[in-house]
UniProtKB/TrEMBL annotation:
Keywords: Endoplasmic reticulum, Secreted, Signal. CDD domains: AGR. Residues 1-21 form the signal peptide. Coiled coil: none annotated. It comes from Loxia curvirostra. One of its GO terms (molecular function) is dystroglycan binding. The gene is Agr2. Belongs to the AGR family. Pfam families: Thioredoxin_7. The keyword Nucleotide-binding does not apply. This is AGR2 protein. GO terms for cellular component: endoplasmic reticulum; extracellular region. It is found in: Endoplasmic reticulum; Secreted.
Length: 173
């Protein structure tokens, strides 16, 4: 049982050092020249340089008023599938560039809007909503049992689905 104690102490140290590092980082970033950015926490690691909305309501409002499509990513911090998808999403240069054309929201909780769970509340799932606030049920991944799920190996499909969400927009409006 001795090793067990070491492990928990070690984990505690990691948590403490992360917390301290975060605070240290905050104090240094008093750079007034940079345009104010939303706290990095909103990205939750999906793309720190992208602008993320905080709530579903805000995202819908912004989508409607900017006439940009909305991309919503449902995920959970402790889900290995979510983590794996997040990693390839954040490291994919083309996706990160294309994401700038969207209103972006990532959620670690479910909304009360049933339209965001057309075939269940699984994670990770990615849905597109157009500025008329219609969920794009036609933009799906490759799994028939989880229509809006993507695996890391599906990243190029997700990229082309993002392009599709933007392209159809141009022809419809």
């Amino acid at each position: 049982a001795m090793e067990r104690n070491y492990v928990s102490v070690f984990l505690l140290l990691i948590v403490i050092s992360c917390a301290l590092a975060k605070d240290a980082g905050k104090k240094d970033s008093k750079d007034t020249t940079a345009k104010p950015k939303l706290p990095q926490t909103l990205s939750r690691g999906w793309g720190d340089q992208l602008i993320w909305t905080q709530t579903y309501e805000e995202a819908l409002f912004r989508s409607k008023h900017s006439q940009k499509p909305l991309m919503i990513i449902h995920h959970l911090e402790d889900c290995p599938h979510s983590q794996a998808l997040k990693k390839v999403f954040a490291e994919h240069k083309d996706i990160q560039k294309l994401a700038e054309k969207f209103i972006l929201l990532n959620l670690v909780y479910e909304t009360t809007d049933k339209n965001l769970a057309p075939d269940g509340q699984y994670v990770p799932r990615v849905l597109f909503i157009d500025p008329s606030l219609t969920v794009r049920a036609d933009i799906t991944g490759r799994y028939s049992n989880r229509l809006y799920a993507y695996e890391p190996s599906d990243i190029s499909l997700l990229y082309s689905n993002m392009q599709k969400a933007l392209k159809l927009l141009k022809t419809e409006l």
